[in-house]
Amino acid sequence: MNTDKIYAEHLVNEYAPKDTSKVVALRKLDAKAKMPATVFTYTFGIVSALVTGVGMCLSMKVIGSGTAAMFVLGVIIGIIGFLGMAVNYPIYSKLLKKGKQKYAFEIMELAKEISEN
Known about the structure:
- This protein has 117 residues and is an all-alpha fold.
- The chain has helices at residues 3-15, 22-59, 68-116.
- Helix 2 (22-59) packs antiparallel against helix 3.
- The longest helix has 49 residues, at 68-116.
- It is elongated and about 75 Å long.
- It starts with a helix and ends with a helix.
């Protein structure tokens, strides 16, 4: 086995321009299909966690007036935040599926072109 040849091919691949490569285009399409679902999931998850935190703070009398009404309001807000976290993954799955369906044809065609060469 010629390790010099393998090393040389590795360097050529590393320094070759990748802007017009079909593999790079395939990766970009894959990222484009997944990005909206990922951004939504992170944003919705963070907001849900913050809502849960506000509810917990209200129910533990860290913020608010500390009355029984604030406690009940805090529990309700906390439950809303927990529900948001609970539905986050199913929403992510649906958005990811929709994004993959949207770009499936283009990705499959490009993958066929790459595999045929």
